Amino acid sequence: AEDGASISAALLAGAVRAVWRLEALPETALGPLGKPFFPSHPALHFNLSHSGPYAFCALSDVPVGVDVERLRPQRALSGTEFAWFRDRGSRWEDFYTLWTCKEARVKCLGTGLIQAPASISVPLLDSGAAATLDGLVFTTYAGEGYRAALCSPTDTAALEWFTFS
Question: Is the Cβ–Cβ distance between 46 and 12 less than 8 Å?
Fold first, then answer.
């Protein structure tokens, strides 16, 4: 979309209709640290992210976190992560694979960025790969101009993908 933020609610509403067969988007609320949830459906978990023209949404029966980032320079890597990034040619695509994993992790856990990003541990993954760390499963996604990640306490290999336009 021209602006991912502007389509986030519509993306969530479409996903809720397609996956959970709910007629309308339930009212949302924010947890104590800012993670959104459906008070009337506490067993239904979701998360949203948007950056520039991109929006990413995940629905699950377990806590889930997602992040998508338009590729642009930032610095928030641990020493090990920065060495990995540098050894791979300092490609911003690799940086954003790490960054989206970090954001997806804190969103899944519901903590938000309450600690320095460099102290948030994530696996070193190629785009499109998955790995487990600290009992969480990380799956990365990539396309032209974006990187995204999904974090969940369960394997996400059986995910169904839906495209809404």
Answer: yes
